[in-house]
Amino acid sequence: MAMREPTFLILTALAEGPRHGYGIIQEVGELSGGRVKLLTGTLYTALERLTAEGLVVLDREERVDGRGRRYFRLTSDGLGALRAETVRLRELAAAAEKRLRRAPRPGVA
Amino acid sequence: MPYGWMLVTYPRDYRREHGAELLEPLLAEGRRPAVREVVNLLGHGLRTRIGRPGSRAAVVCAVLTTVIAGVFGAAFGSWAGWRTSGPLPEPGWARALLADVAPGSDVETVEPPSSSSSSRFALLSRGLSWDDVDGVLFASVTEHRAATAGARVGLPSGTDPETPAREVTARLVLTGWTVHAPIRTDVPGDPAAGARSIRIEAVRDGWTLTLEARPAHADRAAVLTAIVRRPTPAAAWIGGVAGALAAGAIAFLLFAWASRRTGRPGHPARVAVIVPFGLAMMFWWVPTTAAVALVGSSLRSEPQVRGTQLWEWLGQPTMSALFLAGAALAALSLLLAALPPGRELPRTGPVTDW
User: Fold this and answer.
1) What is the dihedral of CA B5, B10, B11, B16, to 10 degrees?
2) For chain A, what is the radius of gyration of the CA atoms?
3) Hey, which of A4-8, B100-104, B112-116, B129-133 has the most confident mean pLDDT?
4) What do you get for the CA distance between the two ends of chain A, in Å?
5) Residue B110: Cβ within 10 Å count
6) What residues 91-130 of chain B have any CB closer than 8 A to a CB of chain A?
7) Element (H or E) spanning A95, and its range?
8) Chains A, B: CB contacts under 8 A, how many?
């Protein structure tokens, strides 16, 4: 089944290494050019689901300014799922580009 | 914690351990929350309460539980609200109304019999008592709706229904009733005869009177019927809404507690709890779905029948034995969920507290 965009972006944000929740939100915003603004409720529900599915795991916990921060990282299954989804999206994009090159230009009979 | 109220739907222990993380963007950026952030946290707080984060079925089950409990709560609240409704007129009142119009004819009381005229509800045209428990549980009692009071009188053969209907209407107007325009319908199966039934509604003092005059047709004599009903009291609506909200909320919290608790690794009833819960859902949803179809079909075939109450749409009291069996199975699910977790249950890391 195709991965939903927020899930894909969360996994992508974790691809370079462990991040905490707020860091993932910032990274997703940057990855999407500011188009996707993850909300914390959505993020942590997704992280819990991804953890239950074995794609993400808790890396460590730190305290910053008296506040707890959990760092998450990809598991090998998570890395595999991200690779597979990236390939799928690339193939889709390639197929779309191929057809677009052959598409008639607007206004040209 | 600033904005801690936004986390009110999250479980208390989760809020304590991870609340600061959930609010970090607001606290780090020093801004006020947007409406969509509040809604997002309230919604995901409810999801977190259910636990079993990898299971969409848990969310579906939570919705099914909340909805069925909400509608049963609405039915109970509505029933309780109905008990505030005022008394019906004495049976003699409707008899006297018709006796004047058809002098010399034998006027009979329709319902309820005078001994139970104060009853708010009627089971097969009589009041509800403890003796009815067997009947209610084993489906021999099929109707429990607000009691009505009325009378019926046979009319001489060949009477045009228009005449007695006109006379009764005049008397009602004189005694302060507001009378609506009559509705005339052809007598089924005998359109050539030209006679039509007349139905008139009148209201006064919170009562609704339905007067129906039918001509003789086939082997049935002409008849004039007057039935008085009480309107649905405001308390029944308020009770229905309050009952739905309270029962839905309680059911959701109980389901979420049991789901989250049994969803933790090492709980001895992690899988076993699904059996009684699934059966409870079946005992509640199947009869309810069947009852909705039956009542809907009955109303389509007899649109003149009125007074169908919410509990009848849920198969009550006809199928109350199934409802009670479902309640017992739901209670068993909660007992299984309350079992102490096994020793192997890991409780050290924050991630396991889901």
Assistant:
1) -60
2) 18
3) A4-8
4) 39
5) 19
6) none
7) helix A76-102
8) 71
Question: Which sequence spans correspond to the domains of chain A?
Answer: 5-100
User: In this complex, which of A48, A52, A68 lies closest to B21 when CB atoms are compared?
Assistant: A68
Q: Which CATH class is domain B85-110+148-232?
A: alpha beta
Of the two residues B212 and B331, the one the predictor is more confident about is B331
Q: Do A44 and B21 touch (CB under 8 A)?
A: yes
Distance, CA of B299 to CA of A75 (rounded, Å): 59
CATH 3.30.310 in chain B is located at 85-110+148-232
- Residues 6 or more apart whose CB falls under 8 angstroms from that of B267 comprise B261, B337, B339, B341, B342, B345
Partner residue facing B54 (CB), from A49, A57, A68: A49
Beta strand pairing call for B178-179 and B196-204: antiparallel
One DSSP character per residue, B223-273 reads EEEEEEEPPPPHHHHHHHHHHHHHHHHHHHHHHHHHHHHHTSTT-TTTTTT
The predicted model scores a pTM of: 0.76
Residue A70 pairs in a beta bridge with A61
Domain A5-100, CATH: 1.10.10.10
Answer whether B51's CB lies under 8 Å from B354's CB: yes
Supply the ipTM of this predicted assembly. Answer: 0.88
Cis bond leading into B112, ω under 30°?
yes
Neighbours of B197 (CB within 10 A): 20
Q: From start to end of chain B, where are the E strands? A: 107-109, 121-123, 144-146, 149-154, 178-179, 183-186, 196-204, 207-214, 223-229
Alpha carbons B100 and B43: distance in angstroms, whole number:
65
B20 in contact with chain A, both atoms CB, cutoff 8 A: yes
pLDDT digits (tens, 9 = 90+) for B71-81: 999 988 988 88
Which of B25, B27, B53 is opposite residue A48, by nearest beta carbon?
B53
